[in-house]
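Look over this record before class:
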Amino acid sequence: MGLDTLREISKSISKSMNSNKLAAKGFITILTGLYSFQDCVHFLASVRKFHREPIIVLIDRVPQILYPLLQVFGNVILKPAPSHENPVLASRLAKLALYRESLFEKTIYMDCDICLLSPIDEVFDFLDGVDLLVTEDVQPAIAKAANLLRVKQDILSTLQSVGLPLNENSIQYNSGFIAFTKSSKTQELFTNFKKYFEMVVAHQNVLFLKDQGAFAAAVESVKPKMTTLSPVYNYLDKWKEIYAIDKPIKVMHCTYPYRPQYAKNVTRSLFTRIVDRTAKIFLPNQLNNPWRLK
């Protein structure tokens, strides 16, 4: 691909970014660093298999020469994500910016290690009359959310001690799937999300660099009009033993190397096979990402 083609892609991206008119609906994901590049390619392939809506990718620390591999799926808008040397922190900061960066009246955010297994048009319809759609984490009770703490001590009191307005009834939602509308209540939610995540960052001596405690606190304080969806919309294959699901899975949440073959088949094509083979040579091994240990 020549320089002229890349310049045209850049102009197209800039035009999309500068548009003030909101589209009716669309998708958004985050790609911060090369560790998740292969996942993102398969994410885009899965969305494009079932949907034609625009897809925003908040992107950081990915060489521009690789951008066309994302743009090939069509109607993909690349927007700069908040930059940070730690790609995990950058991805968290990008999640805080979802409301601001969305160009849509109705937005479905999904982590880029997600794969659609079927169309999810109904999720856009579910947003009629509500501000927010979420799915519960595999451990929904915030008082038992040991995944948020670096230390072994009482979970709820520790979260409260750093300033998060949580209680014994607070729910931990999995922030890998969030659908929202453009509304004053949703804007307030993301403003509080940012405030509470800053508390998490300020207390890294006791808390992991995760955003779900801050998101739960934002929901608790703002109380948006919301609906909790079935786990079929955010199915974590790693924890499949704990689910009791009698309906087809629609959204598989699992990094590509660990993805079951039937999910890999959804995005299988000549293009993705070439990406997968070259990824083994040129991309860092996402399963050994050292930033996830910080």
The mean pLDDT is 92. Residues 117-254 form one domain.
